[in-house]
Amino acid sequence: MWRRPTRTTLSNLLRHPIYAGAYVYGRRPIAPQRRQAGRPATGRRVAHPEDWYVLRRERLPAYISWEQFERHRKPLAANAQASLGVIRSGPSRLAGLVRCGRCGLRMSAAYNNNGSGLRYSCGRNAAEYGRARGQTLTGGPLDAFVRTLVLQALEPAALEVSLHVAADVEAQRQLLHQHWHQR
To answer: Is the dihedral of CA 66, 69, 74, 75 positive or negative?
Structure first.
């Protein structure tokens, strides 16, 4: 069944050696230390071509040459390394938590050049299918609203904690005062 390709499908197409006419076995071996009990699909990792168990070139009809496949691997590996890291710095308190109302995936936080002007946007359709960007919303009012709700929820607990701390301080003061009198 033909389906419209996604970015992941196209990326896998560029990474898989079968498109260069090679038969490969052992591309995704199971690492026993990463395996989780009761979950048979866990523990897989992507192996480097040097670690593949079997590599037979020119065994299948090829769409690209092996040299083209090797040239594609270098920038793809560099891009994968560049994407690793922490969430971008900025004023967003909800980065990675806001979800799109249409597709349900996480919305990304974006800022103006000067670090202000926070916006949350869903770019799944743009990234996967080349369509226009999805929903966007201004982040400042949303962050302020959530901050207010969190502080309201924590207020009774904070009051209770501060009363306990005050009682502990008073007890320590009384104990210290008693020690001074005993001296």
So the answer is: positive
Burial class (CB in 10 A: 0-12, 13-18, 19+), 120: buried
Contact indicator for 3, 49 with CB cutoff of 8 Å: no
- The tens digit of pLDDT for each residue in 58-107 reads 899 988 889 998 888 888 877 765 555 445 566 777 887 888 888 777 88
Give me 45's structure tokens.
């990792």
| pLDDT attached to residue 23 | 93
- The DSSP letter of residue 114 is T
Please write the tens of the pLDDT for every residue from 153-183.
777 777 778 788 888 889 999 998 998 889 8
Sign of CA dihedral 18, 24, 25, 28: negative
3 state SS for 30-91: ECHHHCECCECCCCECCCCHHHCCEEECCCCCCCCCHHHHHHHHHHHHHHHHHHCCCCCCCC
Q: Is there a contact between 139 and 120 (Cβ–Cβ < 8 Å)? A: yes
Query: 3-class DSSP state for residue 23?
Result: strand
Tell me what pLDDT residue 25 has: 92
